[in-house]
Amino acid sequence: MSFFIISLKSSFIYRSSVIFSIIGSLFSMLLTIALWTFVFQHDPEKIKYMITYAILSSIIGMCYSSGMSNAIAGKVTGGAFAIDLIRPVNFILMHYYQLLGGICSSFIMRGIPVIAVFTPLLIMNANFNSPLHILCAIIAIILGHFMYIILFSLIGFMAFVFLEIWPFNRLLDNTIRFLSGSFIPLAFFPGWLGTLANVLPFRFMYSFPIQLLIGNESITSIISNFIILIIWILVLGLLLLFTYKRAINKCTVQGG
């Protein structure tokens, strides 16, 4: 937990960075709202929906970070991975706590101002579902957060095979942003692309929790989606565990 506290405090050292982070988040949100307002200028109901969708997507996105891949890859390529294995703390957990501190500080710097400024728009445009649906959405975001961490941790361990992992990091990040419904709702996707997005696990990070908040998800659909989400996390988690064990064996046998 000390890694979390240190990471959280270090994010607030540079005041100018905090100020520009707040301004950047608000400006980005305003541009997104302006874009959807222009696209659906002849459909007021669509404008209301997209404004709500954009604000919720922006807030949810602050719960995710791709930093695990760079943190792990940096230790692997720099040779510090073997040294970190000696420490009396799990390698992945150590970096996760550091990342979590950064996510919390980012949410404080960017999330709270966005929520404070755009809450009136949410109240005007959104029709939120029942408290049960909202609770399910929060659980879905937490599970999506862990899936995000697992995926980028796997990318980080690819540094054992590839000298540079940034192309894979960028590819995964862009794929998630496009196929998760982060920017464009999956309902707008054409047939084959919508089918692909619904088969892949990325929709659980944005589209699923947003639909729980403002959509028409039935209880049966919610339960089945949560089952699929948990299965994906278990499969990816086992893959990460296998990769981590292989990484340790590689360091033990080959000396790093």
Description of the molecule:
The chain has a domain at 63-98 and 124-254. The chain is built from 11 helices and no strands. The chain has helices at 2-10, 15-39, 44-61, 67-78, 81-86, 91-125, 131-157, 166-179, 191-199, 207-214, 219-254. Helix 7 runs antiparallel to helix 10. The radius of gyration is 20 Å and the shape is globular.
Give the SSE order as H and E letters.
Answer: HHHHHHHHHHH
* Shape call: globular
How can the largest sheet be summarized?
none
Q: How helical, in percent, are the residues?
A: over 70%
Structural class: mainly alpha
Low-confidence stretches: none
Q: Specify Rg, calculated over alpha carbons.
A: 20 Å
Number of helices: 11
- Report the portion of residues in β strands: under 5%
DSSP strand tally: 0
The overall pLDDT average reads 83
Give the terminus-to-terminus CA distance: 27 Å
In short:
By secondary structure, the protein is an all-alpha fold. The protein has eleven helices and no strands.
Write the layout of secondary structure elements.
Blueprint: H1 2-10, H2 15-39, H3 44-61, H4 67-78, H5 81-86, H6 91-125, H7 131-157, H8 166-179, H9 191-199, H10 207-214, H11 219-254
Helix pairs in contact: 1-6, 2-3, 2-6, 3-6, 4-6, 4-7, 7-10, 7-11
